[in-house]
Amino acid sequence: MVSSPATAAQRRRAASRWSCRPADGFTLIELLVVIAIIAVLAGILFPVFAQAREKARQTTCLSNQRQLGVAMLLYVEDYGETFPGGVDRNREEKTAGGARPLRRGRWGDRVWPGQGWAGQCFPYVKNTALFGCPTDPAFAASRPPHNTAVSYGYNINLVSGSDESDDDQEESGSGGSYGGNGGGGEEVDDDTPPRGVSLASLAAPTKTILLFELSGVWANVTDPREGTGVSANQGRHFSASANGLDNRLYAQKDWSTSRENQYATGYLGGRPPYDPAKTQFRAARGRHTGGSNFLLADGHVKWLRGERVSSGRNATHEACGQDNRPAAVSGCDDAFRAAGTGAAGFGATFSIQ
């Protein structure tokens, strides 16, 4: 059958139209739809990837604290079942004429009890990397040996006499394990190092904080005295101690605090800062998905939100509530006290009672 001329022309025009259209092309609308779908998927998946990465860092941090816990318990076993007390105040500068003490009046060159715990425990660790948390911004700026990032702070309540400052002791004439005047005006040797409390004095080691997370601290952890013997060997700070209260985190090389050293736990004990612009808490929540890792005095590590950890000075009795709330136990007081280990409402406490 022979096609008509008109039919053949129509076929040629149709073939021409189809040959001009790209076989695999996209319209602008189709392209925008694909981009929108990719953007939605990215918005869903990227936070998941970030959480997975942070979870890995949290696990590394937990492992570090667990190994530090083993080291500290080895220290306790070797030192008459007492916890580290920190560096002493006996600063000696080695000169051509020999060693001479550095003392500068009443405040001298002293630091708070518990500072320098990391150097005391380093012989049982021998790895500077274990003192740093990968999430801590200070970790990336770590410069061993003198400026190793120390992402963990020590519970100052584990040091004898830490409930009172030297001022309190001098005014009361009670003296103390780290300086001040003794009873009857007798001078107490300022060079006496602080003493850690005994393991037997802890009412419930499974509830008492040993180490907590912080940021902004670098120290010479490779030296048992963290460089106090020779000033040139000191790092920027000493490894820190604290009791979980705002403006009570001590890492400076004198009797002071600084907001450059910060808790990374989130607000502890349900205590919001008086002034959020002038606080030692880095954020309202902990650095690991809203919480942080805590090493307990029996050597195990727990992830807890800040409000689940009671902060403050030692409780006067293990049944006391934080700040004596509710006032249900005789003999408790509200002087910024942590909850006792037997009190309800907290997963852990800074108190040893």
In short:
The protein is of the alpha+beta class and 353 residues long. It contains five helices and 15 strands. It has a domain at 29-91 and 103-159 and 194-310.
Fill in the keyword field for this structure.
seven-stranded mixed sheet; 353 residues; 24% helix; alpha+beta; two-stranded antiparallel sheet; 5 helices
Order of helices and strands: HHEEHHEEHEEEEEEEEEEE
- What is Rg? 30 Å
The percentage of residues in β strands lies in 5-15%
Net shape: elongated
Q: Look at the structure and give the mean pLDDT.
A: 82
- Terminal residue distance: 108 Å
pLDDT < 50 stretches? 91-96, 99-108, 165-190
Task: Explain what the structure shows.
With 353 residues, the chain is of the alpha+beta class. It has a domain at 29-91 and 103-159 and 194-310. Helices cover 24% and strands 13% of the residues. It is built from 5 helices and 15 strands. It has helices at residues 5-20, 28-78, 117-121, 137-140, 166-172, and strands at residues 92-95, 98-101, 148-149, 152-155, 209-215, 218-219, 241-242, 249-250, 262-263, 265-266, 285-286, 292-296, 301-304, 309-310, 348-349. Strands 4, 5, 7, 8, 9, 12 and 13 form a 7-stranded mixed beta sheet that branches. The termini are far apart. The relative contact order is 0.13.
Write the layout of secondary structure elements.
Layout: H1 5-20, H2 28-78, E1 92-95, E2 98-101, H3 117-121, H4 137-140, E3 148-149, E4 152-155, H5 166-172, E5 209-215, E6 218-219, E7 241-242, E8 249-250, E9 262-263, E10 265-266, E11 285-286, E12 292-296, E13 301-304, E14 309-310, E15 348-349
Parallel strand pairs: 4-7, 14-15
Antiparallel strand pairs: 1-2, 3-6, 4-5, 5-9, 5-12, 7-8, 10-11, 12-13
